[in-house]
Structures are given as structure tokens and as C-alpha cells.
Amino acid sequence: MPNLREIRRRIKSVKNTRQITKAMELVAASKMKKAQQSALSGQPYAALLAETLSHIATRIEEVEHPFFEEREVKTRGIIMVTTNRGLCGPLNSNLFREVMKSDDAMKFVSVGRKGKQFLSRSSRELLADFEIDDSVPYVKVKQVTEFMIEKYLSGEVDTVEIMYPRFVNVLTQAPTVAKLLPIRGLDEMITELRGKDAEPYESSADDRNFVFEPDPVSILNSLLPLFVDRQAYQAILSARASEHSARMVAMKTAKDNATKLLDSLTLQFNKARQAAITQEILEIAAATSQD
What we know:
By secondary structure, the chain is an alpha/beta fold. The protein has one domain (24-248): Pyruvate Kinase, Chain: A, domain 1 (3-Layer(aba) Sandwich), CATH 3.40.1380. The chain is built from 6 helices and 5 strands, in the order αβαβαβαββαα. β4 (159-167) and β5 (173-181) form a beta hairpin. α1 crosses α5, α1 runs antiparallel to α6 and α4 (138-153) packs across α6. The chain is elongated, with a radius of gyration of 28 Å. The protein starts with a helix and ends with a helix.
């Protein structure tokens, strides 16, 4: 059995660990609330933008734009959104597992240090890496999407997809791959952005009269890059909410485990001290009886 000094040292170490993990849990909880509010508050704007695109597209006889062009997929372009730091459970490893499952030719842009490290270790083609902080500046997201749009228009990649941990709730973060380019399925996207309780959206059901200035084609061409930027921005906001939720849960689990270990060590310490006291009493009694 370990001596009292060693047990006392372990108890002190576990107490320090519990204090640190509790503080990290509180910080992550505060950041999670802000990130969740940001992700939810951006959904109505993204849905309205998608509706506007849908209205315009239905009023153009033939939409001709590279963003709608279906082409043979030889190389997929992936924006991988991960965290900059660890201690967030299996959040990043779930994304990496999705990458390992696929045998498709892929070229990556990483957002977050963990993704960059994984892609380097697995010898996958990394076109560029970006770091975006917790505030998720829109201008930084725009740099990422503009880089990938350039690769898409040049034909280096045939799709632009974003891989990220989608925030479902505090306990669930689903690894998700969403296609940004080519654009399709606007109605489904609008329904999703409106929320799970919203009615299914159908662009053909809207018979209102719209007046477009200067003309629908010019407006469509102007809005399409904005739409792609906004979809990527919304995904990264969701990823940040997932990160803080996963870290909060991981730190709470670590804190609870430290508490259980502390109880076990305290019990072990009391038993060892009781055994030491009993041994001393026996030695004193034995010495007294000899006298």
C-alpha cells in the first residue's frame, strides 16, 4: 500500500486537476452560449438570401452560371473546419474518420490547426491553411471561400464542399459534409435554415410579382458569391458552437472523474492512516507488556 506522503501528494495533484477542468468547463460554457446565439441568429439571413436566389432563378428562362454547372467530379475540393486546440473529445477525430472512409481524389483547405496537422500526417494534398478565431470574422471566411472559388473556376477542383462538426445540441455534434458548389437543392436548404418546425419550402408555390433592377441575371451573378460565402460562414459558426459544446462536456467529464478519483484516494488515505495508527498502538501495547 502506498505510504501516506505519496497518497497526500496524489490527492493534491487531483485537486489541482479538478480545479483546472472546472474552470475550463465554465469558460467553454460561456463561449458556447455566445457561439450558439451567433449560429442561430445568422440562419434567418441565410434563409432569406437562399429564398431570393430561388425567386430569381425561377424567373430566368435558362440559368447559365459556373456555380450551377454540373460537371464530372474528378477531384473534390474540401474545406475542412477543425479546432485550433484539443481537449474537445472526439470532435476532430470524427471528421478525420470521414476523410479516411473516402477513396475519392480530394484537395483540402484547412481551417484550424488540428485539420492541418492531420492532413500533413496522412499525406493528403493541402492547398492552403487558414486560422479563424472564435469571433469568426466574416472577412476571414470570405478569404477561404474566394480561394476555393478560384480553384473551382479554374477547374483544379470539380466541387467545393465544407466538412465541419454541425451543432445539433450540447451533447451531439454531427460530422457533416455540405456541398457549396455546384449549387443545387435550394428549397431543401431553405427549409433546413428555417428550422425543423418550418413548413417545407417550394419556390414554385410563390406567385408574387417581383421587379428586378437592373435585371434578374445581373442580380443573380452578384448574389451567388455572397450566397456561397454566407453558407460557409454559417457552417463555421455551427462548428464553433460544436467545439465549445464538446469541450464543455469533455471538461465536465474530466472534472467528474477527478472527483471520483479524489473520493477513492481520500478513502485510501484514511485507511492507510488508520492502519498506521493501529500499528503504533500495537507497538506501544507490546512494549508496555514487555516492561
